[in-house]
Amino acid sequence: MTRPDVSVIIAAWKAADLVECAVRSALMSRGVTIEVIVVDDASPDRTFAVLKQLAAHDPRVIIDRLTSNGGPSVARNRAIDLASGKFIAILDADDTIEPDRLSRLVARAERHAADIVVDTMKEVDATGRLLSSGLFVKSPAFSTDRNIDLETWIAFNQPMKAGDCIGYLKPLIRRASLDRFRAIYDPALRNSEDYYLVAELLVQGARMLYLSEPGYRYTRSPASTSHRLNSEHTRAWLDAEARYVRRYGATLTAGQQQALARRSRALRHVDQLIAATEALKSHRFGEFLRLLAADLESSAYTIVSFAKAASSKLRRPAS
Questions:
Q1: Could you give the CA distance from residue 235 to residue 78 in angstroms, rounded to a whole number?
Q2: pTM (predicted TM-score)
Q3: Domain tally for the chain?
C-alpha cells in the first residue's frame, strides 16, 4: 500500500460516546492521504466495540487494545509503533479537527522543512458548540505565524499561571524526526506528555512552527484528564522535569535555563497546592501543615490560591 501522508493517532480511554466523532473528523481530512490509528487504553466501557465498528467500515482505521491501562503516553507510543505515515498527528479522543487542517500543516512543514507544526484551537463544549468567539491562544506573541524555539516553548508552558499555555496545542510531527532523535512519549506521564515530547525534540535541534489559523477543536469538559490533576500527576511532572534538567540542563542557554527555572518553580507550587488540597479534603491536617512548612515559597502560592478560591465562592449568588 502507498504510504499515507499522515497517521492520526488517538489514545482512547472510556471514550465510547466521543471517539467516533474524533475518528470521523480525521477521516474527512482533505488534501492528504491518512490513516487513523486508535489504541484503546483498556477501557472498561464500550470504547473498543465502537472502534471495531469503525474499523469494519473503513480500512483506513487501524485499532489496537492494551491489556492493561497504561495512560495516554503508553497508548500513543503503541499507536506510533503501528503508524506508517510520513507525519504523525496527535488527536485526543474527545476532540475533532477541521477538514483542511492536516493538509495546511503538512504543506507548511514541507515548505519550511519543519519537524513539528502546531496551530491554535477553538474551544467547544461536549456538544461541539463554540464556547467563545476568540481563539485558544490569545497572547500578541502568537497573533501571527512564527517559529517556536525551546525558550519560547518552556516560557509559555507555566502550569496554572495566567496567560497562554501552548502545551495544549496538538502537534503534527515528522516521523523521521521522531526516529532520528529517538524521541518517545514518557510512559510515566499521564498529563503534560505532549509538552515533554516536544521539549525533547526541540532541545536536540528540531524546528517547530506555529500557525495562527485554527484547525483543531478542543473540547472543554470537566471530565477531561487535563482538568483532573492529582498529586500522582504533579509528582510525575517533577520527576520528568528533574530528568530533563539532569540530561540537558548544562547544554541550555542562559535564557532557556531561566525559563526552565521559572517553570520548575511553578511545578513545585502546583504540586504543593494539589497535595495540600488532598490533605485537607481527607482531614489529614498534620500532613497539611508539614507540606506548608517544607516549602515556604510554595506555601505562599498555596495560601493565596486558597484565598482566591474562598473569595470566589463568597461572591457567587446564593442558589
A1: 24
A2: 0.90
A3: 2
Distance CA 133, CA 88 (A): 29
Beta bridge partners of 34: 6
Answer for the pair 174, 86: CB distance below 8 angstroms, yes or no: yes
In what helix (H) or strand (E) does residue 97 lie, and over which residues does it extend? strand 96-97
The tens place of each residue's pLDDT in the chain, 319 residues long, gives 689 999 999 999 999 999 999 999 999 999 999 999 999 999 999 999 999 999 999 999 999 999 999 999 999 999 999 999 999 999 999 999 999 999 999 999 999 999 999 999 999 888 788 887 678 888 899 999 999 999 999 999 987 666 688 999 999 999 999 999 999 999 999 989 999 999 999 999 999 999 999 999 999 865 554 456 788 888 999 999 999 999 999 999 999 999 999 999 999 999 899 988 988 888 998 988 888 888 888 888 888 887 877 776 666 665 4
The neighbouring-strand residues paired with 208 are: 116
The single residue listed with the C-alpha cell 477531561 is: 224
Rounded Cα gap, residues 50 and 19, in angstroms: 8
Contact 251, 243 (CB under 8 A): no
Q: How many angstroms separate the CA atoms of 161 and 101, rounded?
A: 29
Amino acid at position 129, single letter: R
Alpha-carbon distance of 106 to 63, in angstroms, equals 24
How far apart (Å, rounded) are the C-alpha atoms in residues 171 and 6?
A: 12
Phi, psi (rounded to 5 degrees) for 59: -65, -10
Query: What are the grid coordinates assigned to 72, written together?
Result: 495516554
DSSP per-residue string spanning 226-266: GG---HHHHHHHHHHHHHHHHHHGGGS-HHHHHHHHHHHHH
Domain end call among 193, 220, 247: 220
For residues 107 and 211, membership in a common domain is answered with yes
Q: What CATH number did the domain enclosing 191 receive? A: 3.90.550.10
